[in-house]
C-alpha cells in the first residue's frame, strides 16, 4: 500500500512519461477498456453498495442516527465493541511488536514454521476461531477453562474471550506492518547503539522504536478497524446470552432480523464510517513516511 | 599492548571465517586489517568490538579480559561502513547518544558534542538530520559519535568503502591527521591496499581466515612473506621466473645487461605520467614494465621493437628473502 | 511465543483433537451428512469461482493502479481496501442494499447463490490486488522494453515476461483469497438467507452445529475446512512454480 505515495506524485506529474514513451506503450483502446472495466467493477461491487448504506442511514436526515443513539442497546453495544477493540489492539501492539522483533532479529529453530503460522488467523474461518477458543477455554469441559474459572476468571461467554477472539483475528496486522520495516532498517543502528554502551532496553526505546514508529501506527489503525468489526469469532465466543455481550456488529444482525432496519443501517454506518476513517488516516499518514526518507 | 587477540577461531556453519588468528596491536597505533572481501577481516574487527563472539580464543583490551564482555561494556568506538547513523536524531543528538546513555550532566554533554563537531568540521550542521548530510559528512559524524565516549580503541569497518573516490581520498588523509591529533588506538578494515599503505602505521594482511603477514607498509611492500602478500600489495610480473614489481624491471634496446631476456614489445600504453610496456620474451613470458614517460621517450620505445628486460639488481626478488 | 501458543496454536490443535476425539465415526457422520456436504460443496465451488475471477480482475486492477494515470485514482486505491476494513456484517448489509429486496437497480439476488458469490467476491477483493501491486511497481519496465526491442509483440511480452514475473504474487494472493473465501461467515449471514442445501455455507453450518451443542461435528467440519485451505495453498504453490518456470 506504499503505492499511494508513488501514485500521488505520479498523478501530479505535469509531464507524464507516457507521452515520451515509444511505440510499445499499451494502445489507448486497451487502456480505456481496462480502465472502464476496473472502475465499473469496483463501482458495482464496492463503491455503490457502500454509499447506499450512507444513503439509507440519512434517508430521514439525522433522525436515524439520533434514534439509534438513544437506544440503550445500541449505546451498550458500541461501548462494548470499543472496549473489546481497544483491549485487543493493545494486546496485539505489545505482542505484535515483540513477535516481529523475534522474527527479524533472532534465529531459532522453527522460525520458518512460526513465520508461516503468523498468517493462519487471516485464513481461518472466524467461526473456527471461535470454536477453537471455546474448546480450550470454556468453563465446563475446556482444556484450561475449568482451572481458569477456579481462579475466578471466566474467559468464554465473557469479555476476556471476546478480546482473545478479536486479538486472534487481528494478530497478523501489526506483525505484517512492522516486519518489513525492521528488515529494511537493518541492525546497524542497533549495533552502533550497543557499541556506544546502550543496553538492550535503551537500544529498543531510543533506536528501534523510533524507526518502526510509523509502521506501528499503521498496524494499530488497521488492527483497530478490523477489531471493531469482528463478528463471527466474537459471536461464537460471546454466546447467546442476550444484551450483555452483544457487540455492535452482532447488534446489526439482531436489529436487521427484527425488522428494525433503520437502526441496523445507522449502526452499520457508524461502523463503516470508523473503518473508512481508519483507511483514510493510513492513506494520509503514509506519504509522510516517504518524505522523511 | 592495547589489543591482544589470541588463537581466535570463528565459523559460520561450515564456513571458517577465522582460523586460529593471533594479533597484538600496540597502544596509540593506527593499524589496518587488509585483505580481500570475505577473508575474515571484518569478522575479526567485530569480534574485537564484541559485536560477534569467537568460537575459540580470547580477546584482551587494554589489559582487560574482554572475551565474554558484551559490546556495550567494552568501551570501544565502532564506525560502520554504511554509517549506521540514527536517522531520527539530529547530528548533535547522534554524537551525544553515548554520553546520554552514560548519564553525563547536560552541560558536559553539550560541551563535549560541540568540541567533537568542531574536530570533524561539522559544527554548523549540528541541528540537521543525517538525511541532509552527504556520505562523507555522515561518516565524519559517525566518527565523532564513536569518539564522544572516549573509547579505549577506535574500530572502523571499511569506513570509506561506500564513498566515491575523491571523498575517500580526502577522508583518508583527514583520518591520518585526526589520529595524530587524538592518538587513540585505531584499527580499520579495508580491502584497498593503497588506503592501507597511505594511512596506517602497521598492516595486518588477512586472507581466507588466516594472518598472512604483519608489518609496516614498507616491510610488506619490500619484503612480502609470500606470493599472496606480494600480489595483493601491488602489481607483480615475472622475468626469468622471478616475481618482480613492474617498476623494478630494467628495459634496454641493446643486450648490455647480463642475463637479460630478449623479447618484442607487443604493446605500449601511456597512462598520465607513466608508460606501461608489455614485452613478449623469446622464453614465452609476458613481462609488464612500468617506467616514466621521460625514460620511455629517451629509449624511443615502440611496438614490435626488440628489447632486453631483466630484474633491477637493487630490487631483491621477494621470495628469496625470509621474513 | 507463549502467548501465540495460548491464543492460536493450542486452540487450533484443540479443534483437530476434538474432531479426532469423537472417533472416526462422528467424523464420517458429520461429513456425509447431506446438508453439510451441500454446504461444503457450495463453499468450495463458489470460492474456486471467485478466486478465478479475482486472479483475472485483481491483476487487471493492480495493472491499472500501477501503470495507468487518471484523476481520482487515489480514491480507487482507497476503495480497494474498504472490503478489508469494513466489518463483515456491514459488508453483508452493504451488498444487501444494492442487490437485496429494496434494490434501486431492481436486482434481487438475496437468498440466492449469486448472493453468496457476490459476498465472497466482495470480501476477497483486496487480496490479489495488494499482492500483485508491489511486484508490478518494482518490476522494471526495462524488462518489457527489452522484450519489445527484441521484437516481441505486446501479447508475447505479456505472456512470456510480465505474467511469469507476476505469477508468484498472483498465486500467493489467490491462496489467501481462497482461504478467506471458504471461511467467510459474517457477510453471508444477512445476504444469503442460509437456506439449507441451497445457500448455506460451511461456516453457517458449523455455527448451527455449535448452537445445537454438537461441538464434535462442528470441530470435524472445521478440520475439513483447515485441510481444504491447506490443500489449496499447496496446490496453488505447485502451479505457481510451474508457471514461473515455463516463462
Descriptive account of the structure:
The complex is a heterotrimer of chains A (293), B (323) and C (247). By secondary structure, chain A is an all-alpha fold. Chain A has one domain: MetI-like fold (Orthogonal Bundle), CATH 1.10.3720. Chain A contains 14 helices and no strands. Chain A is globular. The two termini of chain A are 17 Å apart. Chain B is an alpha+beta fold and 323 residues long. Chain B has two domains: 226 residues, 3-Layer(aba) Sandwich (Rossmann fold), CATH 3.40.50.300; 71 residues, Nucleic acid-binding proteins (OB fold (Dihydrolipoamide Acetyltransferase, E2P), Beta Barrel), CATH 2.40.50.140. A six-stranded mixed sheet of chain B has the order 6-7-8-3-9-10, sandwiched between helices. In chain B, strands 13-17-14-15-16 form a five-stranded antiparallel sheet. In chain B, strands 2-1-4-5 form a four-stranded antiparallel sheet, with helices on one face. In chain B, β15 and β16 form a beta hairpin. In chain B, α2 packs parallel to α4. In chain C, 51% of the residues are buried. By secondary structure, chain C is mainly α. The model of chain C has no long low-confidence stretch (mean pLDDT 77). Chain C is globular. Chain C has one domain: Orthogonal Bundle (MetI-like fold). Chain C is 81% helix and 0% strand. In chain C, α2 crosses α11 and α3 runs parallel beside α6. The interface between A and C is large, with 91 and 86 residues. Chain B: GO terms for molecular function: ABC-type quaternary ammonium compound transporting activity; ABC-type sulfate transporter activity; ATP binding; ATP hydrolysis activity. Chain B: Keywords: ATP-binding, Nucleotide-binding, Sulfate transport, Translocase, Transport.
Oligomer: heterotrimer
Biggest interface reads: A-C, 91 and 86 residues
Q: What order do the SSEs of chain A take from the amino end to the carboxyl end, as H and E?
A: HHHHHHHHHHHHHH
Domain count of chain A: 1
Low-confidence stretches of chain B: none
CATH class of chain A: Mainly Alpha
Relevant CATH superfamily of chain A: MetI-like
Share of helix among residues of chain A?
over 70%
Query: How would you characterize the largest beta sheet of chain A?
Result: none
State the end-to-end CA separation of chain B: 22 Å
For the report, how would you describe the main beta sheet of chain B?
A: 6 strands, mixed
- Number of H- or I-type helical stretches of chain A: 14
> What's the CATH architecture name of the largest domain in chain B?
3-Layer(aba) Sandwich
What portion of the residues of chain B fall into strands of 2 or more residues?
25-35%
> What is the first-to-last residue Cα distance of chain A?
17 Å
Structural class of chain A: mainly alpha
Supply Rg of chain A.
23 Å
Tell me the structural class of chain B: alpha+beta
What portion of residues of chain A belong to β-strands?
under 5%
Give the number of DSSP strands of chain A.
Answer: 0
Enzyme class (chain B): translocase
Protein name (chain B): ABC-type quaternary amine transporter
InterPro entries (chain B): AAA+_ATPase, ABC_SmlMolc_Importer, ABC_transporter-like_ATP-bd, ABC_transporter-like_CS, Mo/tungstate-bd_C_term_dom, P-loop_NTPase, Sulph_transpt1, Transp-assoc_OB_typ2
EC number (chain B): 7.6.2.9
